[in-house]
Amino acid sequence: MSEVTGAATRSSSAVFTRVCSLDELPTVGAAAADIHGRTVAIVRTEDGDVHAVDDICSHANVSLSEGELDGCTLECWLHGSRFDIRTGTPSGPPATVPIAVHTVKIENGDVFVAVAEEN
Q: Distance between CA 84 and CA 89 in Å, rounded?
């Protein structure tokens, strides 16, 4: 997916940005999106739920969207760190630091993401 430069809408205190249409996502798996300079993995599970997490592994600084999805767990392809895409929590070593989870909403077949603030 390409860099997102517009299409932001405000909902409550969160700013949602249109990232893609549902049709642009894999049926099951992840795709990377650049949302105003931050790389985010947009993940669709087997049951059709869409989640968004930081795309960079907290252990090895590589793209998580290139890894394997198993249920709600996204695995880093380099060293096997696994993250729960609902919470960002790593399920075991080598990663010990969680990744950020972003809020997703689906409207009229489009995926919108509100990027969490960086710590």
A: 5
